Amino acid sequence: MPGISREEVAHLARLARLELKDEELDHFAGQLDDIIGAVATVSDVADEDVPPTSHPLPLTNVMRPDEVRPSLTSAQALDQAPAQEQQRFKVPQILGEE
Amino acid sequence: MTTDPTRLTAAELAARIADGELTAVEVTEAHLARIGAVDEKVHAFLHVDREGALAQARAVDAKRERGEPLGPLAGVPLALKDIFTTQGVPTTVGSKILEGWIPPYDATVTRRLKDADVVILGKTNMDEFAMGSSTENSAFGPTGNPWDLTRVPGGSGGGSAASLAAYEAPLAIGTDTGGSIRQPAAVTGTVGVKPTYGGVSRYGMVAFSSSLDQGGPCARTVLDAALLHSVIAGHDALDSTSIDQPVPDVVEAARNGSVEGLRVGVVKEFRGEGYQAGVVQRFDEAVGLLRELGAEVVEISCPSFTKGLAAYYLIAPSECSSNLARFDAMRYGLRVGDDGAHSAEEVTALTREAGFGDEVKRRVMLGTYALSSGYYDAYYGSAQKVRTLITRDFEKAFEQVDVVVSPTTPTTAFPIGERVDDPMAMYLADVCTLPSNLAGNAAMSLPCGLAPEDGLPVGLQIIAPALADDRLYRVGAAVEAAYQARWGHPLLEEAPSL
């Protein structure tokens, strides 16, 4: 099994939207390497003909009737927003500069 | 009545309130006073809702005066893990990222407690997002174990368990993803139950690992846990994984404890290296007690359990990396770096960096790794196969026996700080509890004595098949009664006074 390098931690952090500090990269690289080394034992069963289990209950598409029901008002839904404007969540710029 | 209300069980309190010997307000005030007196030392609570609790207590007393029917736990105080949303009352999940957040709605568990006239005292401390086995991962400081304040109360639900052991509340609610109800119960000398997966609604319970997370009751006695179980359990249309079947009669089972003729399985994989001698000794005595009480004990083998820890620490982080993506700083919670110079994506990354603690970051990255292309089959895919094998081991075991028993956790409470920077050592605390989360069955921890070498509580775990939660209570009540007859008092009376 491959070890986890500092660069890989930086890549994982980017994928996971974590703006890690430099010192955290070294700290986590060592710890993640230990953990992955320990959990890699599961791959002993990789080639066994065993169906995977993703969930303890055999459920598919549990639906409720499609009826109009009361829900939060927009004021309630926006009450805890970090920023709001015109009854909407206000977010930082999503697209790059023109 | 001169008895201190904080020393009574929930069943006793409910009966005295119903009879008018005590008012709900008196009982609530006694518990708030106890919290005021000891919680600075214990730190079981993140938020005490004095006004809300007293308002609910007054409403119960008014209802009684009007002669209206009361719920089975009417007026009984409860400590709620800070992972359940409470309308108008802060819910942090032990994380800076939700500090100050006031939910606009109640979790189903919260709603059912209120509807049952239970008095919610406040919200209890926990490992951030329920990730941990010591409550040290809380962003708001650790909780002390009432048996020894320099030691951990277990985790993630250390606050809930400690509140019971410190007599701050007779009832508490926890959640159990890999042992977060049972392991804290074991190391604090209290009772904790992880119901069958799907038995208690997850609606309004902040998600960590959705296929494993399960809310459940915590108490000082088996009967109290059963009374609470029956209040919170049952189908909920708001949770698509909620089981649409009647809840087993756990209260009847807890009132009629018996192991006569019961077949009990002892898992031979749950001992050996890493198990403290005193824990093994008390567990072996518990097995002897079960025999004396008329149970037939059988040794069983569950070879896949040895891979349970590895599978769990791939599946839970994978699901958490996906679940925690919702903490993006856009709609609620913390937002960092919104200064006009940073894009939305940068603000998300800056916020998560500032808002999440180390263990959450580790698990989010571990899950991201396990789910990434090239590693998915070897890690996440294999872990799911192990999950099947563990479920099969349980199925085979339950062909031979009615319940399975083991130590709840390999050691007694460890010192605060000892494992905080050694994740693998911390993870070992869950080795006996997490197979039940992977398989989705029901399990309980209850006290079985103090380890001779350190005088700290040891937990006995009882595991029953899915949907047979009542079996836990029937066995647990018999074991509890036999121990109390032997000791002459509940184990918690041996805890030092705070």
Automatic annotation (TrEMBL), chain A:
| Annotated keywords | ATP-binding, Ligase, Nucleotide-binding, Protein biosynthesis, Transferase
Superkingdom assignment: Bacteria
Task: Give the matching InterPro entries.
Answer: Asp/Glu-ADT_sf_sub_c (IPR036113), GatC (IPR003837)
User: Could you tell me which residues belong to the region Disordered?
Assistant: 73-98
Its Enzyme Commission number?
A: 6.3.5.-
Q: Which GO terms describe its biological process?
A: glutaminyl-tRNAGln biosynthesis via transamidation; regulation of translational fidelity; translation
The catalysed reaction is: L-glutamyl-tRNA(Gln) + L-glutamine + ATP + H2O = L-glutaminyl-tRNA(Gln) + L-glutamate + ADP + phosphate + H(+); L-aspartyl-tRNA(Asn) + L-glutamine + ATP + H2O = L-asparaginyl-tRNA(Asn) + L-glutamate + ADP + phosphate + 2 H(+)
Molecular function terms, GO-annotated: ATP binding; glutaminyl-tRNA synthase (glutamine-hydrolyzing) activity; transferase activity
* The keyword Protein biosynthesis is assigned to this record: yes
What this protein is reported to do is described as:
Allows the formation of correctly charged Asn-tRNA(Asn) or Gln-tRNA(Gln) through the transamidation of misacylated Asp-tRNA(Asn) or Glu-tRNA(Gln) in organisms which lack either or both of asparaginyl-tRNA or glutaminyl-tRNA synthetases. The reaction takes place in the presence of glutamine and ATP through an activated phospho-Asp-tRNA(Asn) or phospho-Glu-tRNA(Gln).
Sorted alphabetically, which NCBIfam families does this protein's record hold? gatC
Q: Which family does it belong to?
A: Belongs to the GatC family.
Assembly behavior: Heterotrimer of A, B and C subunits.
Q: What is this protein called?
A: Aspartyl/glutamyl-tRNA(Asn/Gln) amidotransferase subunit C
From TrEMBL, chain B:
GO terms, molecular function: ATP binding; glutaminyl-tRNA synthase (glutamine-hydrolyzing) activity; transferase activity
UniProt xrefs under HAMAP family: GatA (MF_00120)
Q: Is the keyword Secreted in the record?
A: no
Q: What is its EC number?
A: 6.3.5.7
Give all residue intervals belonging to the Amidase domain: 26-472
List the InterPro entries: Amidase, Amidase_CS, Amidase_dom, AS_sf, GatA
Give the record's keywords alphabetically.
ATP-binding, Ligase, Nucleotide-binding, Protein biosynthesis, Transferase
Q: What reaction is this protein's catalytic activity?
A: L-glutamyl-tRNA(Gln) + L-glutamine + ATP + H2O = L-glutaminyl-tRNA(Gln) + L-glutamate + ADP + phosphate + H(+)
Q: What is the protein's known function? A: Allows the formation of correctly charged Gln-tRNA(Gln) through the transamidation of misacylated Glu-tRNA(Gln) in organisms which lack glutaminyl-tRNA synthetase. The reaction takes place in the presence of glutamine and ATP through an activated gamma-phospho-Glu-tRNA(Gln).
Family assignment from sequence similarity? Belongs to the amidase family. GatA subfamily.
Where are the catalytic residues?
Answer: 81, 156, 180
Query: By what name is this protein known?
Result: Glutamyl-tRNA(Gln) amidotransferase subunit A
**Assembly:** Heterotrimer of A, B and C subunits.
- Provide the organism lineage as a comma list: Bacteria, Bacillati, Actinomycetota, Actinomycetes, Kitasatosporales
Per the record, its GO cellular-component terms are: glutamyl-tRNA(Gln) amidotransferase complex
| GO BP annotations listed | translation
